[in-house]
Amino acid sequence: MLPCRDLRRAREVAVFEFFRRWFAGWPGSRTFTSGSQSFLDLECDRCGEQFHLYIDRATQCLQVFDEPGVAWRLEREVVGARCRSIIQVRIDFAPGGEIVQRQITHGRFLSPSAEG
User: Fold this and answer.
1) Residue numbers of the domain that contains 107
2) 20: Cβ–Cβ under 8 A, 6 or more apart, which residues?
């Protein structure tokens, strides 16, 4: 019989895997951009866990006024269920919505739009 902590962790992993498989087949799940809304795919360097993040510039990005060519900045921290490593993401967007600069620590970008 598993101890309570191991049972809870096994349940956590099972639920996570269910939702990961459920949304993995979603059409267009790699990269979607429409107006101020888009998705971003990341992977943890430590354990390989993948994340599919929803980004809404209107509510999640800060407007930048003091840097030329940069209109919005996304600063986000992502914590996974497997290793609890904190992935820090910072992306600067131009006024037209194009990615000007991107930085990530403890992870890597999987989205094609974030590779350029």
Assistant:
1) 27-114
2) 50
Per the structure, the count of domains in the chain is 1
* pLDDT(114) > 60: no
Helix runs in the chain, H state only: 4-24, 57-60
In a domain, 66, yes or no: yes
Total-model pTM: 0.62
Q: Which of 90, 92, 88, 81 is nearest to 107 (CA)?
A: 88
Residue 19 lies in a domain: no
Mean pLDDT across 52-59: 84
15 within a domain of the structure (yes/no): no
Q: What are phi and psi of 106, to 5 degrees?
A: 65, 25
For residue 86, is pLDDT > 90? yes
Domain presence at residue 85: yes
Q: Which residues contact 11 (CB under 8 A, 6 or more apart)?
A: none
For residue 72, what are the β-bridge partners? Answer: 63, 93
pLDDT digits (tens, 9 = 90+) for 19-29: 666 665 544 43
